[in-house]
């Protein structure tokens, strides 16, 4: 079965999180993603997170379905090989600091002149323009500057979102933009430059908060797990854990009062409408907390399901992968790594009826496909050996096992 992006070649000059996530999404859809790493250790994420037999588990997921080569882009030989790859490519993705690609000789203008059909995507901390363009950006800094951190956590202290949302959003937006640019190229026959940043990727998700500020002039506050526009819509403690309750509209609120056997709350003047409930949110939370703590999470889940009130348990990560719904959706995939053996990776979040993603292999060992890719470019074994001796690239260290 043909994958969605069969025939599309992507040059991945990214590392850590945002860029690799963007190119992983493209690789999952069938693109031939060639990850280009520096000789001195490769992608820094190879040394981050849990390490299994010398390989980073996170790296193996973020770079699954990609081919990996080592190339010193500071050397003339390395630059020459990158130009050969550019001639064959549809997309180039980079997340260096703005100006770095220009200094290396691979500015958008230079690349566009060489290959006018190529989509050139840049991901940075703050964007390619503006007074902060030259500053390094990290997920935490973007969360802080986007306003996300200021509205996350309880009333007394801000909290970072538990996952690197700025990084992941930037990667998601980048892949989305690349697909749109590829579609446009089908009609125009021209590539283009697209760019996003961790800052903008995080800001794009402050829809409730930004509009609250624009409409009221007030600074949005931290509400813990509560919703900014609907109540009750938050997490409550039970006798043995926590439960998330999504009574996001009037009808569901009324069902909730029936499910909790407290129909009088429906008539309480403090809670009649959503506007009333938001205005009196502390009192509402107090009332419902006293109710929910009297039963277990499982008991409440059964009750809420009976009455049609959206609810769910607060699961730990191990509990997530044990949940029957997650199992049914195939969100824990396994594949074989040449040195680690069987490894787990997060399943595909989108299901396709006609062009489903395929898990072909985990992230490559450093330099794993160098010889393969360079041979495709027409280099001989002697040429490749000479590049290895010069330190422009490194010998292959393994062969992926497809699964």
UniProtKB/TrEMBL annotation:
Q: Does the keyword Glycoprotein apply?
A: no
Highest taxon, organism lineage? Bacteria
Gene3D superfamilies reported in the protein's UniProt record: Crotonobetainyl-coa:carnitine coa-transferase, domain 1, formyl-coa transferase, domain 3
Do the record's keywords include Transferase? yes
What InterPro entries would the database entry show? Answer: CoA-transferase_III_domain (IPR050483), CoA-Trfase_fam_III (IPR003673), CoA-Trfase_III_dom3_sf (IPR044855), CoA-Trfase_III_dom_1_sf (IPR023606)
What Gene Ontology molecular function terms does this protein carry?
CoA-transferase activity
Keywords from the UniProt entry? Transferase
Q: Where is this region: Disordered?
A: 384-403
Family annotation (SUPFAM superfamilies): CoA-transferase family III (CaiB/BaiF)
Locate the compositionally biased regions of type Polar residues: 393-403
- Short name of any one Pfam family annotated for the protein: CoA_transf_3
**Protein name as annotated:** CoA transferase
